[in-house]
Design goal:
The chain has one domain. The chain is built from four helices and no strands. Helix 3 runs antiparallel to helix 4. The longest helix has 22 residues.
Length: 82
């Protein structure tokens, strides 16, 4: 069994939680930047024999869904008018 502790999405969220890890927005300039980096790493895993090429599309789709989920949770938590 394992667990996942997602990164805070914004710097403010990270600071509020006293999380020393850089937030998503501190790590990536945009959703496209994040997905580009996921693709690069996934291609490397294919080259090294750890991931099947046929799974690349699924990996990219799931990465985009996770990014969107984290981003939507931040938007829902912001007070009206922000």
């Amino acid at each position: 069994m394992g667990s996942t502790v997602p990164f805070a999405f914004t710097r403010q969220e990270r600071e509020d939680a006293s999380d020393p890890r850089p937030s998503v927005e501190e790590r990536y300039t945009s959703r496209e930047d994040y997905l580009r980096k996921v693709e690069q790493v996934a291609n490397g895993l294919v080259s090294d024999g750890y991931l099947l090429e046929e799974d690349l599309q699924t990996v990219a789709q799931q990465a985009g869904e996770r990014y969107d989920l984290l981003e939507s949770q931040v938007k829902q938590a912001q007070p009206a008018g922000d």
